[in-house]
């Protein structure tokens, strides 16, 4: 065990250094004792572990169940339970099987054949974790020849007594044909008793095995059915699968399958998938495609973190589409703005400023920009600054305009620097011209 070796070496090193540290003189020339609280307890060595009682070893082994794999408690606990199991302690053998199942590890025992016999002995006496441990050994060829059929027999045994991880293995075997004949219905049946997180991961594993043919057969239609089932649990993971298929990042590229999964993820409410699908529909000349794009952008923009969807709705509105599509866009912006999407607030402000789909109201536009600015959107600060500069929808206030431009510039909004320089540069026109120019700036820049 590499980690154990490291720990033993570190223990020897610290032991040799400790006397020198204790003997180091302090400022007064006397030896400075080390505080017991400051000393870090050293992990027991293999020799010390072998000298411990089985009961004490079991207590150390229990810590390995809940500890992270990269911690000292896990390393020491695993070594302790191995020693206790080698003494023939049945509780230790069962505990070792639980550790293997929980952490998905190969123990690397010196005599794996003996370990397999001990697991088998406990399995025959009803220890489901030991049943799973034997199945894993045959599945991976860990100390025994690889035998997928025998592994599945053991997985099914553990699954029938209610072991969740074994149920997931049984589902994978039926879904991919690993060790038995494929049966999609039976695979899904086994997953009914598994928690959602494991269900999702198993469905994705089955899907990718069928896409890539890692278990011997490729079947894209079946893979898509498993992926779609996973989308019912967490659509965002299936959107990632779609991107991988679209780009071919895992060795198989299938844009048609990717498009299908993007639609599924979007329909299931994934914001990124909805934005992706809407972008492909928005460029269509078909009015119904454009209407669907607006609906999807609207749903996506209700996720207040999805600024792209909010921006896209605003751009569609700026194009002033014909028919009743404007009303759909404004309605989508209103819902997204109510959900707190800052870009939707900015787009809705443009609608009120220009009277697109609503009655013109610079005051309402300013109020919406104020709300977005308070949420920290630099673009909203810039646009609100233009309104204060021109007195459009608010009382003209050059100091307030400069404050907003400065804040937007500090946040990296490029047009704010231009606006600031124009206000600090020497004026060459009359106040009437300045006001007209500023008002024009608001209208021109509100959708820039």
Question: Describe it for me?
Answer:
The protein is mainly α. The protein has a domain at 366-448. Helices cover 70% and strands 0% of the residues. It is built from 24 helices and no strands. It has helices at 2-23, 46-51, 54-66, 72-86, 90-103, 112-123, 128-140, 148-160, 164-176, 184-191, 196-212, 220-231, 235-247, 255-267, 271-282, 287-301, 307-318, 325-338, 342-354, 362-374, 378-390, 398-410, 414-424, 431-445. α21 (378-390) packs antiparallel against α22 (398-410). Mean pLDDT is 83; it is low at 1-31 and 427-448.
Strand content: under 5%
Q: What level of helicity do the residues show? A: over 70%
C-alpha termini separation: 62 Å
Which H/E pattern describes the elements? HHHHHHHHHHHHHHHHHHHHHHHH
Please count the beta strands (DSSP E, at least 2 residues each).
Answer: 0
Give the structural class. Answer: mainly alpha
Largest pleated sheet: none
Shape: elongated
The average pLDDT value, as a whole number, equals 83
SS element count, helices = 24
Radius of gyration: 33 Å
Q: Would you identify the regions where 5 or more consecutive residues have pLDDT less than 50?
A: 1-31, 427-448
